[in-house]
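YM 10:42: FMN-dependent dehydrogenase sequence, as discussed on the call
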Amino acid sequence: MASSLPIFISPAALARLGHPDGEMNLVRAAGKAKILQGISNNASCSIAEIMSVKQPEQHLIFQLYMNKDRIAAEKLIRRLQSDGFSAIMLTVDAAMPGKRELDQRTKGHWEGPAANGKVGSEEKGIAHAMGGYQDPDVCWDDIPWIKSLTELPLIIKGIQCIEDAERALEMYKVDGIVLSNHGGRELDYAPAPMTVLYEMRQTRPDLLDKHHVFIDGGVTRGTDVLKALCLGARAVGLGRAFLYANGVWGEEGCTRVVEIIREEIVLDMQLLGVTGLDQLTPERVKYVERSRSRL
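YM 10:58: structure's back
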């Protein structure tokens, strides 16, 4: 799947909480910029609405949470290709909703396809209210099952250690992995994706050379993108930046995010003295361990 930039829009739920057009704004912006986008299983726009604004050659990836109801999961997986999606991104780092205290205090009300016609619970935050269908027992055996149902490429999102990266890529032969801790919103002290990427570069550089490894989370500047590319990531996902932009300026804001990141990537490459992404090598990155807090 071609992209004009080594970035993609990470799948994030309920964009309509920020703007009436929700995910459609992100799809329009991604299509114009010719970048990839992940569509959340909990999107607030229907698949029909999303596909109605998709460019003919635009690639959208469906982010899948495994449903406890495997019959419903099977029906969804089987139809994704005919719906127009180019790949499936199975998310495994949020089988249970984390302790999101700000979300729980907000207790916002929402409606959309993921809500099955119900408004958000007054006793739960949005993440807990909409996540009840997710299977906490999602496991490795689900990978061959998904592959048996579709010809779409399968990407595993939420890998957080070298051993799982090896297992996913070498044993289960998935088409790619995303190193991710779900934006740091699930488990306190989960390793940052960039840290896991650095560990892969040190211990299993062959995985990065042979396979499609992506990261998302903690990316706010063009220099963050270049660090990941230097260490071997194929592309980098951004989520919050697009949600914030959508909430304030809609489609125009989403387009501006792409412009800012593009400008920063180009400028940073110029200042590094490189003229192509193939010149971004590990030697250009110096890894510094975080210092421990002093008592």
